[in-house]
Queue: 3 jobs
Job 1
Amino acid sequence: MGGALIVAMGNPLRSDDGAGPAAVTGLEGPGRSVRLVPELMPELAEEVAHAKTVVFVDAREASPGGAVQVLALEPSPHARMGTFSHALSPEGVLALAASLYGHRPKAFLVTVNGSDFELGEHLSPEVERALPSLRARILKLLCDSAPADR
Amino acid sequence: MNRIVIEPVTRIEGHAKITILLGQGGEVEDAHFHVTEFRGFEKFCEGRSFREMPVITSRICGICPVSHLIASGKAGDALLSVDIPEPAKKLRRVLNLGQLLQSHALSFFHLSAPDLVLGMESEPEKRNLFGLLAAQPEIARDGIRLRKIGQEVIEVLGGKRIHAPYVTPGGVAAPLTEAGRTRIRASLPEALFIVARTLGWFKRSLEEHHDEERVFGNFPTLFMAMVGDDGALEHYDGKLRFISATGDIVADGIDPAHYADYIGEAVEPYSYLKFPYYKPHGYPNGAYRVGPLARLNCCSHTGTPRADDELAEFRQLARGAVLSSFHYHTARLIEMLYAVEKIGELLEDPDILSDDVQASARRNRFEGVGACEAPRGTLFHHYKVKPGGVMAWANLLIATGQNNLAMNKAVAQIARRYVDGKKIQEGMLNRVEAGIRAFDPCLSCSTHAAGRMPLVVELRGPSGELFDRVERL
């Protein structure tokens, strides 16, 4: 069984949608992998199934801009992001991992509120300022999860 | 006139709406496959260097970015006026086939298999990847493995699975290493086993799909695809061939750079998706289909042993061209078999590890066309540049657009069989959608990918009054 997996979702060419990838770049390290993906696809389930802890990172359109939330996740085949079943929700990926590969890692979703999702490579000032806090929350989740895994 | 509206179509790449137009007696008069969003990629390419185009245009799509990389890189080759080194061509071929494998796997195993395995009448809540998982987990697992193997091919060559900036005007960014070749080679036997097993299962299951085979876009049109000099199946660099519904060659040996002499692009007020047609036959009589079904109909042989055996069997489905769009699925599976065999063949080429992968040149022309066979059909990038290589104009002719006329006809045909104009049935909705999904349309490529909306179906009377409405999340 592997270590921690950080999955950042988003399109860096869509302004604040790139917050996840911007936050996690450079967080790779021993026992910690980072994946940058535009959306969650079924094949991610295999990698998720081999991790002890998974942190999904995403931007969401909400206010106030820059606010960070953390949500503990459970596998759920019913939690889809919409009607397009090729793109799964984090809970759906966890459900696939559990069904196909028999493992349920600890999992969290960390989101940051964004306000600008138009074409562009720059984050809004609120999201830019929130990046250190976003990184800190991700690392704290991984740190807190580690003792229970030993 | 009564109207049934289905919005959006699910499990295709992007967002669309279907309107079924009913006459006074409730009979289906016509159907429109609408694409209601506009992306405008061609416009915002203007002002950028043509050398940036592969990276920029590959962002059009998260499923087939490699096709845009290759078509754009080839348009760049034309602007440089270079014949790129043979090893670079071979590596581009491997890359393209890796993408074909992962894209076809997504289409067949994850988007269409729920319909095929669980049935068109099954509960919509269960007719998805998780329902497939419960009913036939090995098919869901096989789909994941095949996608991953295709993506590994892309990752080995380009350094990452999506949006790898590997193809550049003049060649590719880096040679293949021995370790990379070994890694790809190692996965091919498993891929071959999975595809062959799935193809066997699918062919046996065709008995259960006679109705879909009969009405899922089963009508005469032209077909267009690239073929090699000897008529072989070709995905990277061939000449265009048009064939008729009877299988006769209508036009052949067309340099893709001259596509505009043969293909016109009509527009309709109800869709942002253009309606390409074969110019000599006019609009809309010049409807033609592209993609896996067209490629297998147009080629004389595939050039790999197991795919050739399957092609011979495929040809038994019809006397002339195979006309039912349901057989896009069959063709997709045969192409996956071909892709695995061909990648294996290319990896054994003595040149494949060569360092000679990039031609160096300055811009030598002001206009260039690049084309390749994307998973969904022939893709053209046509660029005009100013002195200094700044983009002045772009035209991207996308596979999904080229199937637009046929998709509209397919929806009308399916609706005539399953819609009575009185009540909306779930099975009917899904058949219309499944008919569209057989084409594997990519609306993010052809226009735009935004929008997460529930499925809404409305039945309206002659004056626009609402008779019936169905919505599912």
Job 2
Amino acid sequence: MKIYNIIKKGIILLGILIFTFSCDDYLEEEAITDISADFVYNSAEGLETGVVGLYNFNRQLYENGRHEWFSSIMLASRTDLAIPRAGVLSLFGKYHWGISQNGYQATPLMSFYWQHYYKIVDRANAIIKGAEELSDIDEVQRAKIIAQAKFYRAQSYFTLYRMFNNIYVTEEPSDPQNAFDVINDKTPVDQIFTLINSDLSYAIEHLEWSTPDFGRITQGAARHVKAKVALWEKDWDEAKFQSEEIINEGPYSLMPNTGDVFLGDLNNNETILAIQYADGLPGGSSVSMINFNFIPRYERAPGMKLAQDLGGKGGGFLLPNNYLLNLIAEDENDTRDDDTYFRLKYYYNDGDNLPDDVNLGDEVMVYAPTTDPDNPSATNNQYYERIHPTCLKFIQEDNDPELQVQISNIMVYRLAETYLIAAEANMMTGGDALMYLNAVRTRAGAAEATIVDQQAILDERARELAFEGQRWFTLKRMGVLEFQIVNYHGDDYYKADGRTKFLPQYVNFPIPQSQLDLMGPSFPQNDGF
Amino acid sequence: MKRKFNLKKDRFFFSLFLLFSVIVASAQSQKTITGTVLSSEDNLPLPGADIIEKGTNNGTSTDFDGNFSLEVNENATSLVISYIGFKDQEVQISDSPIQITLQVDVNALDEVVVVGYGTIKKSDVVSSVASVNVEEAIAIPTANINEMLRGRAAGVQVTTGSLRPGGTSNVTIRGNNSLAGDNNPIYVVDGVAKDDINDINPEDIASVEILKDASAQAIYGARASNGVVLVTTKRGKEGKVQISYHGFFTTQSISKNFDLYSGNEYADLRREAYRTNNPNNEYESDDFIFTEEELAVLGTQNFADWEDLVISSANISSNTFSLSAGSEKTKVFSSINYFKQDGIIPSSGFDRGSFRLNLDQTINDKLSLSFNVALTTSTQDKESSSLNLITLSPLGQVYDDQGELVRYPIGSASYTSPLWNIRESTNDIKANSYDLYFILKYELAKNLTYTLNTSLGRKTTDEGLFYSPTHSTGRNTNGLAKISNSLRENYLIENILRYDNQLNENNKLDVTFVQSIDERKFSTTSTTGTDFSNDVLGYNGIGSALNVLPVGRYAEERKLLSFMGRVRYGHKDKYLFTATARADGSSVFAAGDKWGFFPSAAFAWKIHNESFLEDVDAIDELKFRVSYGSIGNEAIKPYQTLGTASEYLYVFGGESQSGYLPSTVLPNPNLKWETTTSFNIGLDFMVWDNLLAGSLEYYNNSTTDLLVQRSVSGITGYTSTFTNAGEVNNSGLELLLTANIIKKDDLKWSVTATYANNKNEIVDLYGNDENGDPIDDTGRGYHVGQPTSVIFQYDFDGIWQEGEDWENSPQAAANQSGLGAGSIRIKDTDGDGVITADDRIFTNPNPDWFGSLSSTLSYKGFELFVDFYFVEGAKKVNPYLADFNAGGTLQGVLNGIKVPYYTPENPSTSYPRPNRESADPYLFALAVQDASYMRLRTLSLAYNFPESLMSNIGINSVQLYGTANNLFTITDYKSYSPEINNDGYPDAKAFTLGLKVNF
């Protein structure tokens, strides 16, 4: 009985212990290995990592493997300079896909753009708000954090507006309370631009011209985007001011030769902003695949083999068209098609497998394009697939030629575009446009122009900046997208579907229906969709 | 004990009765019969067995040594011997002493069922509990215990997870309740929840019960809302020492129901694909469409059959020794097992060694202790990833002229030979686990017991992965080695008080109170190295990697604190009541929402014990059951309410910098319990002396406050957030039927059928929009009024044929490019004249019903077991008929499942025309296929050698058996297995030879 009593007491004691030791303390949760969002937004150290995260988010445009890695060049495939030859990319390029809010196969990519830029916006919003409210932080550090976040917010809203037109703009970070707010209307255009301009002005004011971290946003990048925004708003004075500030005050200069512009890691004097990679480094070794889309399948021609100096392995999905090549060819001294920006010809490089009657180094001429529709070339398809001229701007020189993917920096903004912005702004304000236009032409070895008009600006931009991501926006801004597509898209007898498929509403992208459904039934779709 | 007491009472009256009979009959002429009655169980004498002269009231009973002596009429021919718990037996009278061995009478109603915190007689079960026939279940040669449950209980749906050796299957009990949480049941092994059931040696399992309604699940509450699989391992019994051996050997070979294109067929497919794109509808020259390497193979006609080259037959073996022994106070069960399975893809395999010791020790009248120790060690070898054996072109050269393996069979570096990749990769996962249980029982007072139930489990894994620099994955980084270690821990402490009392003749009360603490932790560390100058050491040479990436580390823990009370009350053995209430606190929910309260109640009526049925001989059992109650689900990951950031690093000018941001899921700090409320009604019956027995059940489960990952608008910068919303309903009918058609001593035949259907529906999601229409979550595939995993695709309507007016079709109105004869035709289901996303239709992927039919026939020493499994009305999307990477797009780029595609000369009505440049946009509509099937899962023949033969050499019993698994499958679904697409590990047929010996 004694033992029985002891055990009884013991159990009662145990019961009391269990109840008194607080249940809620026991069940409290604390993440063991994860950084909390609270740390990111509410400490100086955390905000710095948040800003780095924005660079990573922004780079995801180039790494979207789900859409066959062409998210960053989809717009290029829809310009007047492109032949969308094959692959899913060509379906977008030929205006078969990406033309409807319900396009079953294309909607994921449209949603990707929509979500990609808004994702940057939201995290930038949260970083800006966190930095503004944080008390324990050095003022210079605070301003630099906010400046970079505001640059990304402005750039993202600018891109969203140019692609999707009807957009909603907010400076509030999302939380579970506001995430399901019904959004009934788009934000008025002037409000969008007020925010973009004020963000960029802040960034210009608080960022230095140069940074030890190559690839960081600088004052130059902010001014460059502000100049582009000004062009869009037809604020020619502002565009002139910003572009000339960069040219005259910034630490930039045009590379002496066009062949140097895209060499190596792009960390040169002409580059204003480049997406950064570094093989083998944490945060640097994710892959992209832009180059693969451009380089033709030359190795399929007998007597040819893969070689890195030819661009390595490619699918030849997106090719420069005759309209562009002819523009460069107008001046025979123009170096931009001398294996610098573009390659025109291929020469036998596989000594072990040469066809009869040719020598190593002879030009490959076994295929020919159709030039007369009544008399089609039997080797037209082979010509375009294998030895058509190509864009060389994205080659990774030290890659394995058999690899489809690459790990190398990607050009975003460079001084040559600033010169052409300055040329356009001066043309519209009666300044010396030719000086800026000819700086670009002279560098490329082309003769100086003597007159300048919108077409001259457009053509020079084509020669200099083709496939760098700006063309579609430029055409839209100048109001010539439809004209240029209908007249020049594809080649005359090859993949010119866009010329007939293009409809006026395609100056905007349709907002994916799935996104409209999530916002609220009355958010306006763009006209024509 | 009670039974024996009654028996004695009966015997007293019976003896009195006999006394009278003897007196009455003494006038006639008599003879004396003597004999002994033994038990068949242990061959020991049975004292108190009744012996009656047949057709009279004359009889006697056996003495303490089982002997009897009876005076009978001279004309008497036979005696009837009876004893409670044994079958009656009739014997011929002879002049010499008779030895009678009585056979044990296994009455199905007296079987004991484990229901959690105790066992009860099957006839007293109030809630929905299904018992699995363990013998039949373990007739599958696998280490995958979930797979063993397939077809063994109604309403338990098993679908293949991974067929790789060491892989597992998914168990769904009564449909999917949860959207974001997982839908797996919990496994409770000897009272302790376990994450990985496959650590257990199937031979150690004594019983498996499946708890299906809230009343039954309430015992295990949190995490039990998807059902509970209760596994009880064997324990020692009082009696003599028994040593058993079970070994088997299995060969497996591939099972499939589709063909790939042969070399020439594949070449034709590509020619057709190019021809479609040719403006003049002409074939392109072979020189244009094939590489030099492919042309060479076409010339020699020496094609590569990759499937045949890679897959080969493989063996399984298993050996188990077990020991069971016990004295009055100490009982021991112990076993040791080694299981080894080679995969049908070389370099894959699984082996497992396990040891178990279950010890029960009675200290005194009040105190007893139990210990369980289970140790498992296993190695899983995984084959190389990216084995494109279905999609790789047959126009490849496997070996070169010197007989060396060719790395790039078709010349292109995009396609590495699967044999090469197998050779150039290693992936081993070594796991060690132990589980320690300590159970203390103390009788506090009469009928009041305290139990302390504790357990500690740990599992460590050590995974090594290596891709050499020439492997197709390793090439990107010049070799890759990854080593990861992980540790899983779980702790359980339960304090259980139980009061169990037969209050009086008519009333029985049983009260249980449980308090428990359950903690589970997981942590993992991994290191990755790239850039290898040599590959001789495999992943063990990670130290020689020229580039080592930062160490990865992740850790989580979750805690659960519960209080449970259960009251069971029985009245007159006719009316049974159970009421359960529990409160669970889980660490994974938001502060303030951590606790949930879940009550349930059940009632059963044993109708056969009512006076109006007591005299109906045909009915052995008729029991009606009803239950209602709720259970919580905490099946979300830890830290969902905290808001964590993920790593997003970047490099500036070649230098890494640390970056963190919240990922694409918006953190929600307000998550709470998801609750499943279930209603269950059932009828158990047994008629005509167990000729037919079974149960019929209907259930209706409603899950509310669903933990759901809800899509949010892109403008928030997120894609989704976890939230509590909506309601999912599952309802269905389950039938279990066993017919014991022949029950003779020498010949027995029984047939068991299970049938289950389940209707799964999202009843509500996020409320209604401004127009009163329910808000769907199209992005996540959730649609109100549809099943949780509905297929939402266009409606395939055949193939456009030459002469038909596709130019004015709704597809042409939607600007479909390349539309023409040979394109897939889609129904304009909304009739608006143009194909839009609104024309997609819902297809329910879940089966209309599923079930099994098994038969056991035994004749003398032979036993024949046949088991069929049925799934009817299931639908699946087969990517191998639609996806580019699965070779389903008919572009002639990759090989794939052979289909009768369209050509102008042979216009198909079921598959479109090949197209090199762009696949038909509606292939996924075509890929919605019927995945119904019927499979002969098991065909087994066993022979038990006669006891007489064996006892001479000191062996109790010997059984030799041969089993065939997956012998045939009838299905239209083109895949290695109708439950898994070909991107998974291929399914296999298996033939087994096994031996069981009891010493």
Job 3
Amino acid sequence: MDLVAGRHFADERRPIRHLDPVLITGAGVLSIIGLFLIYSSKHAQLQAEGADPMFLVKKQITAMVLGLILLLLVAVVDYRFFKVYAGFIYAAALTMLVLVRIPGVGTTQLGAQRWFQFAGFQFTPSEFTKIALCVMLAAILSELRTPEPLLRDTLRVCLVAGVPMVLVFIQPDIGTTIVLVAITVGVLVVAAARGRHLAAVAVGAVVMIALALNLGVIKDYQLARLTGFLDPANNSLTTNYNKSQAEIAVGSGGLLGSGYLKGTQTNLEFVPEQSTDFIFTVAGEEFGFVGSMVLLLLFAVLVWRAIRISYLAKDPFGTYVSAGIAAMFSIQMFVNIGMVIGIMPITGIPLPFVSYGGTATMANLVAVGLLLNIHMRRFK
Amino acid sequence: MDRTSGRLRILALLVILMFIGLTTRLWFLQVLAADKYKDKQVTNRTRTVLTPALRGNILDSHGKPLVKNRLSLQVQVNQQDLGANSAAVLTRLSKLLMIKLSTLESRLKDPRYYAYAPIPVAFDVPKQVSWYVTEHAQQFPGVRVVEAPVRDYPDGDLAAHILGNVGPITADETKEPLFASYGQNDVVGQTGLERQYERYLQGTKGKSFYLVNAAGKQIRTIGSEAPQPGDNVVLSIDARIQRIAEQQLLSGIMRARGQADSTTGQSLVANAGAAVVMDPKTGAVIALASWPTFDPQWFVQGMTTAQYKARFNSSDGQPALNRAEFQVYAPGSSFKPFVALSALRSGVANEQSSYPCPSVYYYRLDPNHAFNNFESSSGYMDLASALRVSCDTVFYKLGADFYDKSAGSAKGTDLLTNDLLPFGFGSQTGIDLPVEAGGTLPGFDYALQHKSVYPFGWLPGNSILTAIGQDSVTVTPLQLATAYSSIANGGKLCRPHLADHVETPDGKTVKTIEPKCHPIPYTPQQLRFIRSALSGVPVSGTARTAFLQFPLSSIPVAGKTGTAQRQGFQDTAWFAGMAPAGNPKYVVVAMVEQGGFGGVTAAPIVRHIMEGLFHLPQTNPIKATAP
């Protein structure tokens, strides 16, 4: 019996039996809702152009299939493997960020150089930079010899995080930079960095930003975008036009929304970037406050599971990676929805799982793969 | 791991704060402020296109249209779309329309239009022009031929002054509250009744609602509201009487030009005149004529600046000026009945006494203060006879007595002015036209306010001359008709009005213009006395010749002539009459500028208008002119 019981116990601990069904359901439902919202956001426009109204949905499904394959690959290998190769992952991410800056290799679009273009698909390296940074920071902090990071360690972490931040920032991609900052802060907080160390780093960051402003590294339009939401009456800014249109879309949804495919703000192209950065307007306009709450609830589930996995992880590396991912998901959700409803500056951050975008979708699924991996292998 | 779980709590707390922030804001947007955003959403996706409403008609008292609409093919040029070869396009257009290029260019400079709006350059063009422009569209960029409703005047220049004209709204007008809802290309009443009753005539624009996308592209029609044509304004003007008044006025003016001025012997200039026919009981104006006149159609077809100047700014013509209500003249002896009434009221004179009528009146027997009698003089006469023969010297004495009595009375009481004010002198009648002159009733206070005219203040001579309607006394013909109406109707001063009521296109009355009358402080007995005195004027007084063979026994006429002096000009001829004298139905006033004697020039005009009013055989028939 003991043997049987022992075997049974060992069997119980087999990783495949410890997938997190809540996490999988949450991410899955969000992705499916995303497909419906993407369809709603662009079908009228695509139809008017004589294109297949399912065009974007099909591309998104393709990305999701690819993402699921990546998820499986990431989930199957023990996550500690990634700790070993964290340096390589980090270096690969930096290499891609550098390559994308090289004319002819990276693609310039809308004044920003952040894509690789091949075979009709775009690949955005900065999406994977986020995960690479989670892994890299977690690897550094989990190898500390002191119970909590010293100032030196904190600075080292900030330096490691600062390199991709700068590379992403000059693309320019302020949104992703903010996410990288949030990941760094999230991991440092969970890794028990001292409050005053974090404060010192924050002061340093402010000084750096002030310097960047004075040296003209930050372009005027970027500054205008970032501060535009503080001055909503100034409609001369395109960003404020976008913001006010997005607010009208969400606000006009009311309690229950205007009904699926019936949002005029969305279908008549008043809201810009409806399928990507402003996808939340579709939910807000067509499903109202109730629909918005459902989306928020699903994100709450997602972040809750990530934090729970961080708590359950058997080693600091797992804890830190999960914490980084939790920070990543929550900051993206907050900045994206906040920007749509006018409480955050307009920055190009997609809504995880919901926004149309191949690389982001794949990166998010890889992150879920990592979470599942850590969850499955939580037993020592 | 405890430390880690504590730190994870901090992370969780931050995330919870994020959710609280988002939920709060969403609650505000989607629940509290949802209605505001729903409105904005609707505004966003809807475009409203306005279609102009057909303007209301102006009808005479019998429902005959004086102003209506007709469709006209007009050529419009949008200068912004003319392109680089604007000169070539205009040359082509000039050949096609057979209009001189310079004329075309000057029309494009019409200051009444915005430079970026389509400017009409030719009206009532033949259909062939429209076809040609359509077929050769590439040769005529910015040119279009459109069919648009324009104002139509079935009776030509009849009542042109009171009807007024419409025109494109001016930049200044768009700022006025009256035109708050108007667009930049709207047509509005500019003058006369078109302006006065703009609110009713304009109608309600039609609206078409379109669903549009962010680029403003129309997706489909959502709905529409048909334009509501403007209301019709029905006048108290009787087109028949108006025509007679205009024709007889012109005829009288032409007749005067054949006569010699009594003082200089030169021919009378008789450059202009006016006539008013009024219902004394209500103030309803039955005819209001002014000559020279103009063709309102000119405004429809548009004028070049040169044409406008030639037609309207000529030195003596000023045909746009409505002399019946916007120009003031000394009333001369036509003012005497009101002075007589004042005298009766103030006890300066009475109905029975006799007064001397010498050829010269000396104030206080002072030979330095002599006032000549410009009318006939003969012995002693009562007040009625003094009116009948229009003896100046009798009235000089009344004026002097008023002055003396006022000077002796409590300070500041100007008895003559006080007595004349109730007849409405010195102030506008309030007729329903956009502009009106008020005339002058001078007196002590007036003299104080006009030191340049009265450097020594109000002197006895001023009162003496006021008593015969000279000095600074001025009235409009309409004002005089209103004052005579108060004698005719037994003691009410009524506000004159041209419109009787406003009705919808299908005849439902929207607004009735009620008579606005108030009593004047004269007794029916006093007024009856004056009417009776004035009824002697056409019989045996100053208008005897003018009313020869008029059936005065069946239709007694009471009236008064006036021959007013005007510095530097020939005399102004006046006649104000009412009939039947016992209970007058009509008050008729005629005035001819530089027309000589009132009894000779003005009284016949009134007589012939009265022949028309009472359907008598016309003793001065006018050859029928094509309407």
